[in-house]
Amino acid sequence: MDASKPMLVRDASLVDGRRHQDVLVQGGRIAAIGTRLAAPDGARVIEAGGMLLSPPFVDAHFHMDATLSHGLPRVNASGTLLEGIALWSELKPALTQRSLVERALQYCDWAVAKGLLAIRTHVDVCDDRLLAVEALLQVRKTVAPYLDLQLVAFPQDGLLRAPNALANLTRALDMGVDVVGGIPHFERTMADGAESVRVLCELAAARGLRVDMHCDETDDPLSRHIETLAFHTQRLGLHGRVTGSHLTSMHSMDNYYVGKLLPLMREAQVHAIANPLINITLQGRVDTYPKRRGMTRVPELMAAGINVAFGHDCVMDPWYSLGSADMLEVAQMGLHVAQMTSQAQMRACFDAVTVNPARLMGLAGYGIEVGNHADFVLLQARDPVEAIRLRANRLLVVRRGAIVASAPAATATLNLPGRPQSVDWTLRR
Ligand code: FE2
Description:
alpha/beta
Protein backbone atom coordinates (compact mmCIF):
# COMPACT_ATOMS: atom_id res chain seq x y z
CA MET A 1 0.00 0.00 0.00
CA ASP A 2 1.65 3.22 -1.17
CA ALA A 3 -0.66 6.18 -0.66
CA SER A 4 2.07 8.80 -0.80
CA LYS A 5 2.28 8.80 -4.61
CA PRO A 6 -0.34 10.82 -6.54
CA MET A 7 -2.61 8.73 -8.75
CA LEU A 8 -4.43 9.67 -11.95
CA VAL A 9 -7.25 7.43 -13.16
CA ARG A 10 -7.82 8.21 -16.84
CA ASP A 11 -10.97 7.79 -18.94
CA ALA A 12 -13.36 6.38 -16.36
CA SER A 13 -17.14 6.22 -16.45
CA LEU A 14 -18.88 7.39 -13.29
CA VAL A 15 -22.06 6.09 -11.65
CA ASP A 16 -23.99 9.29 -12.47
CA GLY A 17 -23.45 8.68 -16.20
CA ARG A 18 -20.50 11.00 -16.83
CA ARG A 19 -18.01 9.42 -19.24
CA HIS A 20 -14.36 9.99 -20.14
CA GLN A 21 -13.57 11.37 -16.69
CA ASP A 22 -10.12 11.63 -15.12
CA VAL A 23 -9.84 11.38 -11.35
CA LEU A 24 -6.78 12.82 -9.63
CA VAL A 25 -5.79 11.55 -6.18
CA GLN A 26 -3.38 13.32 -3.88
CA GLY A 27 -2.71 12.76 -0.18
CA GLY A 28 -5.31 10.00 0.02
CA ARG A 29 -8.12 12.27 -1.17
CA ILE A 30 -9.76 13.08 -4.48
CA ALA A 31 -8.10 16.29 -5.65
CA ALA A 32 -9.83 16.82 -9.01
CA ILE A 33 -12.33 15.27 -11.41
CA GLY A 34 -12.47 16.39 -15.03
CA THR A 35 -11.44 15.70 -18.59
CA ARG A 36 -7.82 15.57 -19.75
CA LEU A 37 -6.28 16.27 -16.34
CA ALA A 38 -2.48 16.46 -16.30
CA ALA A 39 -0.61 13.79 -14.37
CA PRO A 40 1.63 15.30 -11.67
CA ASP A 41 5.30 14.28 -11.64
CA GLY A 42 5.74 10.75 -10.37
CA ALA A 43 2.02 9.97 -10.45
CA ARG A 44 0.80 6.44 -10.93
CA VAL A 45 -1.42 6.51 -14.03
CA ILE A 46 -4.28 4.04 -14.31
CA GLU A 47 -5.94 3.64 -17.73
CA ALA A 48 -9.59 2.87 -16.99
CA GLY A 49 -10.49 2.42 -20.65
CA GLY A 50 -14.08 3.62 -20.14
CA MET A 51 -14.78 1.23 -17.29
CA LEU A 52 -16.90 2.19 -14.29
CA LEU A 53 -15.21 3.86 -11.33
CA SER A 54 -17.58 3.34 -8.43
CA PRO A 55 -17.44 4.28 -4.78
CA PRO A 56 -16.71 1.15 -2.74
CA PHE A 57 -19.43 -1.32 -1.89
CA VAL A 58 -20.93 -1.05 1.58
CA ASP A 59 -22.70 -3.82 3.50
CA ALA A 60 -24.84 -2.35 6.28
CA HIS A 61 -26.10 -5.69 7.60
CA PHE A 62 -23.81 -8.59 8.39
CA HIS A 63 -22.96 -11.15 11.09
CA MET A 64 -19.19 -11.39 11.21
CA ASP A 65 -19.10 -13.40 14.43
CA ALA A 66 -20.86 -16.28 12.65
CA THR A 67 -19.36 -16.00 9.18
CA LEU A 68 -17.39 -18.90 7.68
CA SER A 69 -18.56 -21.24 10.45
CA HIS A 70 -20.55 -23.37 8.02
CA GLY A 71 -20.73 -26.98 9.18
CA LEU A 72 -19.76 -26.19 12.78
CA PRO A 73 -20.88 -28.24 14.57
CA ARG A 74 -23.32 -29.37 11.83
CA VAL A 75 -25.25 -27.89 8.92
CA ASN A 76 -28.74 -26.43 9.14
CA ALA A 77 -30.87 -29.35 7.89
CA SER A 78 -34.21 -27.56 7.60
CA GLY A 79 -32.71 -24.31 6.29
CA THR A 80 -34.99 -22.28 8.54
CA LEU A 81 -34.26 -19.15 10.58
CA LEU A 82 -35.21 -20.89 13.82
CA GLU A 83 -32.93 -23.90 13.24
CA GLY A 84 -30.19 -21.41 12.39
CA ILE A 85 -30.65 -19.65 15.73
CA ALA A 86 -30.67 -23.03 17.53
CA LEU A 87 -27.53 -24.12 15.68
CA TRP A 88 -25.76 -20.87 16.57
CA SER A 89 -26.59 -21.57 20.25
CA GLU A 90 -24.98 -25.02 19.89
CA LEU A 91 -21.86 -23.46 18.39
CA LYS A 92 -21.47 -20.58 20.87
CA PRO A 93 -19.93 -22.57 23.78
CA ALA A 94 -17.20 -23.87 21.46
CA LEU A 95 -16.20 -20.44 20.14
CA THR A 96 -12.73 -19.15 20.90
CA GLN A 97 -11.48 -15.64 20.43
CA ARG A 98 -8.79 -16.88 18.10
CA SER A 99 -11.19 -18.69 15.79
CA LEU A 100 -13.55 -15.71 15.77
CA VAL A 101 -10.73 -13.36 14.78
CA GLU A 102 -9.35 -15.72 12.13
CA ARG A 103 -12.73 -16.22 10.46
CA ALA A 104 -13.52 -12.51 10.56
CA LEU A 105 -10.15 -11.54 9.09
CA GLN A 106 -10.53 -14.08 6.31
CA TYR A 107 -13.93 -12.62 5.49
CA CYS A 108 -12.47 -9.10 5.47
CA ASP A 109 -9.88 -10.29 2.94
CA TRP A 110 -12.69 -11.57 0.73
CA ALA A 111 -14.52 -8.26 1.19
CA VAL A 112 -11.56 -6.11 0.16
CA ALA A 113 -10.98 -8.24 -2.94
CA LYS A 114 -14.63 -7.62 -3.88
CA GLY A 115 -14.34 -3.85 -3.32
CA LEU A 116 -16.43 -4.03 -0.14
CA LEU A 117 -14.72 -1.51 2.14
CA ALA A 118 -17.32 -0.78 4.84
CA ILE A 119 -19.35 -3.30 6.84
CA ARG A 120 -21.81 -2.92 9.69
CA THR A 121 -21.82 -6.20 11.57
CA HIS A 122 -24.07 -7.32 14.37
CA VAL A 123 -22.29 -9.07 17.22
CA ASP A 124 -24.18 -11.39 19.55
CA VAL A 125 -24.02 -10.23 23.18
CA CYS A 126 -25.99 -13.10 24.75
CA ASP A 127 -22.87 -15.09 25.68
CA ASP A 128 -21.81 -13.76 29.09
CA ARG A 129 -18.14 -14.07 28.11
CA LEU A 130 -18.61 -11.48 25.33
CA LEU A 131 -15.88 -13.30 23.41
CA ALA A 132 -17.29 -12.25 20.07
CA VAL A 133 -17.40 -8.62 21.17
CA GLU A 134 -13.76 -8.73 22.22
CA ALA A 135 -12.78 -10.50 19.00
CA LEU A 136 -14.58 -8.09 16.67
CA LEU A 137 -13.28 -5.04 18.53
CA GLN A 138 -9.81 -6.42 17.86
CA VAL A 139 -10.68 -7.07 14.21
CA ARG A 140 -12.13 -3.54 13.85
CA LYS A 141 -8.77 -2.14 14.95
CA THR A 142 -6.74 -4.49 12.74
CA VAL A 143 -8.67 -3.78 9.55
CA ALA A 144 -9.16 -0.03 10.15
CA PRO A 145 -6.49 0.98 7.60
CA TYR A 146 -8.37 -0.77 4.81
CA LEU A 147 -11.96 -1.41 5.91
CA ASP A 148 -14.50 0.49 8.05
CA LEU A 149 -16.10 -1.92 10.47
CA GLN A 150 -19.09 -0.78 12.53
CA LEU A 151 -20.31 -3.03 15.34
CA VAL A 152 -23.90 -3.47 16.55
CA ALA A 153 -24.61 -4.91 20.01
CA PHE A 154 -27.12 -7.61 19.09
CA PRO A 155 -29.13 -9.56 21.69
CA GLN A 156 -29.71 -12.57 19.40
CA ASP A 157 -31.74 -14.53 21.98
CA GLY A 158 -33.95 -11.56 22.93
CA LEU A 159 -33.26 -8.56 25.15
CA LEU A 160 -35.97 -9.52 27.66
CA ARG A 161 -36.06 -13.23 26.87
CA ALA A 162 -32.39 -14.07 27.44
CA PRO A 163 -30.86 -13.80 30.89
CA ASN A 164 -28.31 -10.97 31.25
CA ALA A 165 -28.92 -9.69 27.72
CA LEU A 166 -29.46 -6.05 28.73
CA ALA A 167 -26.48 -6.10 31.12
CA ASN A 168 -24.29 -7.72 28.47
CA LEU A 169 -25.44 -5.30 25.79
CA THR A 170 -24.64 -2.36 28.05
CA ARG A 171 -21.19 -3.84 28.78
CA ALA A 172 -20.59 -4.24 25.05
CA LEU A 173 -21.41 -0.56 24.48
CA ASP A 174 -19.04 0.36 27.32
CA MET A 175 -16.33 -1.66 25.56
CA GLY A 176 -16.73 0.42 22.40
CA VAL A 177 -19.42 -1.22 20.29
CA ASP A 178 -20.89 1.48 18.04
CA VAL A 179 -24.60 0.80 17.56
CA VAL A 180 -27.56 -0.47 19.65
CA GLY A 181 -29.25 -3.58 18.22
CA GLY A 182 -32.41 -5.52 19.04
CA ILE A 183 -34.72 -8.31 17.92
CA PRO A 184 -38.26 -7.47 19.09
CA HIS A 185 -40.02 -10.23 17.09
CA PHE A 186 -38.00 -12.86 18.99
CA GLU A 187 -39.18 -11.71 22.44
CA ARG A 188 -41.84 -13.86 24.13
CA THR A 189 -44.79 -11.60 23.33
CA MET A 190 -45.65 -8.67 21.07
CA ALA A 191 -45.80 -6.56 24.25
CA ASP A 192 -42.28 -7.62 25.26
CA GLY A 193 -41.10 -6.86 21.75
CA ALA A 194 -42.50 -3.34 21.96
CA GLU A 195 -40.96 -2.90 25.42
CA SER A 196 -37.55 -3.99 24.12
CA VAL A 197 -37.77 -1.36 21.39
CA ARG A 198 -38.56 1.33 23.97
CA VAL A 199 -35.71 0.31 26.28
CA LEU A 200 -33.15 0.09 23.48
CA CYS A 201 -34.11 3.38 21.83
CA GLU A 202 -33.88 5.15 25.20
CA LEU A 203 -30.48 3.57 25.79
CA ALA A 204 -29.29 4.81 22.39
CA ALA A 205 -30.70 8.30 22.99
CA ALA A 206 -28.96 8.53 26.38
CA ARG A 207 -25.63 7.54 24.83
CA GLY A 208 -25.96 9.44 21.55
CA LEU A 209 -25.71 6.22 19.52
CA ARG A 210 -27.34 4.89 16.38
CA VAL A 211 -29.88 2.05 16.44
CA ASP A 212 -30.19 -0.91 14.06
CA MET A 213 -32.74 -3.56 14.95
CA HIS A 214 -33.63 -6.86 13.39
CA CYS A 215 -37.28 -5.96 13.10
CA ASP A 216 -40.23 -8.14 12.07
CA GLU A 217 -38.07 -10.84 10.43
CA THR A 218 -41.11 -13.06 10.13
CA ASP A 219 -43.96 -13.88 7.75
CA ASP A 220 -46.51 -12.73 10.36
CA PRO A 221 -48.40 -9.76 8.88
CA LEU A 222 -49.26 -8.61 12.39
CA SER A 223 -45.63 -8.27 13.44
CA ARG A 224 -45.51 -4.48 13.53
CA HIS A 225 -42.50 -3.57 15.60
CA ILE A 226 -41.36 -1.24 12.84
CA GLU A 227 -44.28 1.00 13.78
CA THR A 228 -43.05 1.05 17.40
CA LEU A 229 -39.48 1.68 16.23
CA ALA A 230 -40.60 4.65 14.12
CA PHE A 231 -42.68 5.95 17.05
CA HIS A 232 -39.80 5.93 19.56
CA THR A 233 -37.42 7.35 16.94
CA GLN A 234 -39.75 10.28 16.50
CA ARG A 235 -40.48 10.61 20.25
CA LEU A 236 -36.81 10.66 21.23
CA GLY A 237 -35.60 12.84 18.36
CA LEU A 238 -33.44 10.07 16.87
CA HIS A 239 -34.30 11.11 13.32
CA GLY A 240 -31.89 9.70 10.73
CA ARG A 241 -30.05 7.57 13.31
CA VAL A 242 -32.32 4.52 13.36
CA THR A 243 -32.51 1.56 10.98
CA GLY A 244 -35.03 -1.24 10.74
CA SER A 245 -33.39 -4.38 9.33
CA HIS A 246 -35.25 -7.10 7.44
CA LEU A 247 -38.86 -5.82 7.89
CA THR A 248 -40.00 -8.97 6.09
CA SER A 249 -43.47 -9.01 7.67
CA MET A 250 -44.20 -5.94 5.55
CA HIS A 251 -44.47 -8.17 2.47
CA SER A 252 -47.59 -9.73 4.02
CA MET A 253 -49.13 -6.69 5.70
CA ASP A 254 -52.46 -5.26 4.74
CA ASN A 255 -52.01 -2.63 2.03
CA TYR A 256 -54.16 -0.07 3.86
CA TYR A 257 -51.96 -0.39 6.96
CA VAL A 258 -48.74 -0.06 4.94
CA GLY A 259 -50.19 3.15 3.50
CA LYS A 260 -50.19 4.51 7.05
CA LEU A 261 -46.86 2.98 8.09
CA LEU A 262 -44.61 4.31 5.32
CA PRO A 263 -45.27 8.01 6.08
CA LEU A 264 -44.55 7.33 9.77
CA MET A 265 -41.18 5.81 8.82
CA ARG A 266 -40.49 8.71 6.51
CA GLU A 267 -41.42 11.23 9.22
CA ALA A 268 -38.97 9.59 11.64
CA GLN A 269 -36.33 9.26 8.88
CA VAL A 270 -35.97 5.58 9.70
CA HIS A 271 -33.70 3.72 7.26
CA ALA A 272 -34.59 0.25 5.99
CA ILE A 273 -32.39 -2.72 5.13
CA ALA A 274 -33.55 -5.69 3.08
CA ASN A 275 -31.37 -8.78 2.91
CA PRO A 276 -32.47 -10.33 -0.38
CA LEU A 277 -30.38 -13.53 -0.38
CA ILE A 278 -31.47 -14.44 3.12
CA ASN A 279 -35.05 -13.19 2.91
CA ILE A 280 -35.78 -15.20 -0.24
CA THR A 281 -34.37 -18.38 1.32
CA LEU A 282 -35.56 -18.11 4.95
CA GLN A 283 -39.03 -16.59 4.64
CA GLY A 284 -42.15 -18.33 3.38
CA ARG A 285 -40.92 -21.67 4.71
CA VAL A 286 -44.32 -22.70 6.04
CA ASP A 287 -46.15 -21.58 2.92
CA THR A 288 -47.38 -24.10 0.40
CA TYR A 289 -48.32 -22.32 -2.83
CA PRO A 290 -48.58 -19.49 -3.61
CA LYS A 291 -45.30 -19.01 -1.70
CA ARG A 292 -44.34 -15.53 -0.52
CA ARG A 293 -41.13 -13.94 -1.77
CA GLY A 294 -40.15 -12.94 1.74
CA MET A 295 -38.54 -9.57 1.08
CA THR A 296 -39.86 -6.24 2.33
CA ARG A 297 -41.48 -3.71 -0.03
CA VAL A 298 -38.32 -2.16 -1.43
CA PRO A 299 -39.66 -0.07 -4.35
CA GLU A 300 -42.57 1.20 -2.25
CA LEU A 301 -40.21 2.19 0.59
CA MET A 302 -37.95 3.99 -1.89
CA ALA A 303 -40.91 5.75 -3.51
CA ALA A 304 -41.98 6.97 -0.07
CA GLY A 305 -38.60 8.68 0.33
CA ILE A 306 -37.14 6.14 2.76
CA ASN A 307 -33.47 5.28 2.45
CA VAL A 308 -33.18 1.56 1.61
CA ALA A 309 -30.02 -0.55 1.59
CA PHE A 310 -29.43 -4.18 0.68
CA GLY A 311 -27.35 -6.25 3.11
CA HIS A 312 -25.58 -9.58 2.72
CA ASP A 313 -26.53 -10.69 6.27
CA CYS A 314 -24.87 -14.11 6.15
CA VAL A 315 -22.02 -15.88 4.38
CA MET A 316 -21.36 -19.56 5.09
CA ASP A 317 -22.88 -19.67 8.55
CA PRO A 318 -25.76 -21.44 10.37
CA TRP A 319 -28.32 -19.57 8.26
CA TYR A 320 -26.77 -19.56 4.78
CA SER A 321 -24.22 -21.87 3.20
CA LEU A 322 -23.33 -19.69 0.20
CA GLY A 323 -21.99 -16.18 -0.45
CA SER A 324 -18.63 -14.58 -1.19
CA ALA A 325 -18.76 -10.94 0.03
CA ASP A 326 -20.04 -9.94 -3.41
CA MET A 327 -22.49 -7.05 -2.98
CA LEU A 328 -23.30 -7.21 -6.70
CA GLU A 329 -24.72 -10.68 -6.09
CA VAL A 330 -26.83 -9.14 -3.31
CA ALA A 331 -27.99 -6.32 -5.61
CA GLN A 332 -28.80 -8.78 -8.37
CA MET A 333 -30.95 -10.90 -6.08
CA GLY A 334 -32.69 -7.81 -4.67
CA LEU A 335 -33.45 -6.60 -8.17
CA HIS A 336 -35.02 -9.91 -9.12
CA VAL A 337 -37.03 -10.48 -5.94
CA ALA A 338 -38.40 -6.90 -6.00
CA GLN A 339 -38.95 -7.02 -9.78
CA MET A 340 -37.01 -3.75 -10.06
CA THR A 341 -36.24 -4.09 -13.74
CA SER A 342 -36.59 -0.56 -15.15
CA GLN A 343 -33.29 1.21 -15.85
CA ALA A 344 -33.91 3.65 -12.97
CA GLN A 345 -34.81 0.83 -10.58
CA MET A 346 -31.72 -1.19 -11.51
CA ARG A 347 -29.58 1.87 -10.82
CA ALA A 348 -31.41 2.23 -7.50
CA CYS A 349 -30.37 -1.35 -6.67
CA PHE A 350 -26.74 -0.34 -7.28
CA ASP A 351 -27.24 2.60 -4.91
CA ALA A 352 -28.64 0.11 -2.35
CA VAL A 353 -25.18 -1.50 -2.04
CA THR A 354 -23.15 1.72 -2.23
CA VAL A 355 -24.39 5.19 -1.35
CA ASN A 356 -27.55 4.23 0.58
CA PRO A 357 -25.82 2.02 3.18
CA ALA A 358 -22.99 4.57 3.43
CA ARG A 359 -25.61 7.15 4.37
CA LEU A 360 -27.28 5.08 7.06
CA MET A 361 -23.91 4.16 8.55
CA GLY A 362 -22.91 7.82 8.60
CA LEU A 363 -19.68 7.22 6.65
CA ALA A 364 -17.81 10.51 6.32
CA GLY A 365 -15.99 11.43 3.11
CA TYR A 366 -17.68 8.69 1.07
CA GLY A 367 -18.28 9.04 -2.67
CA ILE A 368 -16.36 10.11 -5.75
CA GLU A 369 -16.37 13.86 -5.16
CA VAL A 370 -13.52 16.33 -4.81
CA GLY A 371 -12.33 16.42 -1.19
CA ASN A 372 -13.62 12.95 -0.29
CA HIS A 373 -11.49 9.95 0.59
CA ALA A 374 -9.83 8.37 -2.42
CA ASP A 375 -11.75 5.12 -1.95
CA PHE A 376 -13.10 3.49 -5.10
CA VAL A 377 -13.42 0.37 -7.20
CA LEU A 378 -12.69 0.05 -10.90
CA LEU A 379 -15.21 -2.43 -12.26
CA GLN A 380 -15.02 -4.37 -15.51
CA ALA A 381 -18.34 -2.88 -16.63
CA ARG A 382 -19.38 0.38 -18.25
CA ASP A 383 -22.30 1.37 -16.04
CA PRO A 384 -24.08 0.26 -12.84
CA VAL A 385 -26.63 -1.90 -14.65
CA GLU A 386 -23.90 -3.77 -16.50
CA ALA A 387 -22.02 -4.14 -13.22
CA ILE A 388 -25.03 -5.91 -11.69
CA ARG A 389 -25.65 -8.00 -14.80
CA LEU A 390 -22.08 -9.28 -14.88
CA ARG A 391 -21.41 -9.22 -11.13
CA ALA A 392 -18.48 -7.35 -12.58
CA ASN A 393 -14.89 -8.23 -11.98
CA ARG A 394 -13.11 -5.86 -9.57
CA LEU A 395 -10.09 -4.74 -11.60
CA LEU A 396 -8.73 -2.41 -8.92
CA VAL A 397 -9.71 -1.57 -5.36
CA VAL A 398 -8.32 1.67 -3.92
CA ARG A 399 -8.44 2.79 -0.31
CA ARG A 400 -7.16 6.25 0.73
CA GLY A 401 -5.26 6.47 -2.54
CA ALA A 402 -3.49 3.10 -2.25
CA ILE A 403 -4.24 -0.01 -4.30
CA VAL A 404 -5.39 -2.68 -1.84
CA ALA A 405 -6.59 -5.33 -4.32
CA SER A 406 -6.48 -6.01 -8.02
CA ALA A 407 -7.60 -8.68 -10.43
CA PRO A 408 -6.88 -9.39 -14.11
CA ALA A 409 -9.65 -8.63 -16.58
CA ALA A 410 -12.08 -11.51 -17.01
CA THR A 411 -11.92 -12.88 -20.53
CA ALA A 412 -12.19 -16.13 -22.41
CA THR A 413 -10.11 -17.36 -25.32
CA LEU A 414 -12.06 -18.30 -28.41
CA ASN A 415 -11.12 -20.70 -31.15
CA LEU A 416 -13.83 -20.08 -33.72
CA PRO A 417 -13.44 -19.70 -37.50
CA GLY A 418 -13.67 -16.04 -38.61
CA ARG A 419 -14.32 -14.71 -35.09
CA PRO A 420 -12.18 -12.68 -32.65
CA GLN A 421 -9.79 -14.67 -30.52
CA SER A 422 -11.07 -13.45 -27.17
CA VAL A 423 -14.32 -12.32 -25.65
CA ASP A 424 -15.50 -10.33 -22.67
CA TRP A 425 -19.08 -9.72 -21.67
CA THR A 426 -19.30 -5.90 -21.67
CA LEU A 427 -21.48 -4.19 -24.26
CA ARG A 428 -19.53 -1.69 -26.36
CA ARG A 429 -21.40 1.48 -27.28
FE1 FE2 B 1 -29.23 -10.34 10.45
